[in-house]
Amino acid sequence: xxxxxxxxxxTCVPLPLENVDTDQIIPARFLKATTKEEKFxxxxxxxxxxxxxxxxxNTSFVLNDPxxxxxxxxxxxxxxxxxxxxxxxxxxxxxxxxxxxxxFFADIHKNNELNNFVLPVVVSEQFLSELFAxxxxxxxxxxxxxxxxxxxxxxxxxxxxxxxxxxxxxxxxMNGLDDIDYLLTVKDKTxxxxxxxxxx
Length: 200
Prior knowledge:
36% of the residues lie in helices and 16% in strands. With 200 residues, it is of the alpha/beta class.
């Protein structure tokens, strides 16, 4: 979903599990889908954790717990490991998460999130641990993610950390542009350069 990013202030959904791989995010059987409809993949985010084998709702899983909600998923270390399937990022975006916070992301999944307008925010393990504790103590507490200044703030503790992001991807997120959209914005400059280069 193409949305411009600026400052996001939201409650969080905690997933304090390490090494969550892309098959857990979106099981392999959904890779055969012939649609990229956001709702389809969002409805099947963490499918095998959200539902029991008989199809009934797993009420113990955090996404089914009405205590938690919001646009920010807070995940354990090494989020998005495993296969490079972009469907995992589609599912996260389709569910409605705009930010994922973790202390470490698998590189390919991190880039897939950025390409699908989900902001992966890397924080220190200490900050992440304190964030989980704050959410547990008060599920209604909010986190502020400031993309222009590249900061994330735990409002419960007042602590802020700076996060890194590629300058090009930051520009695209803040302007709601995918790679094709960006190329179209510089079309005139590209054509002018090609005309100049053709002289040599």
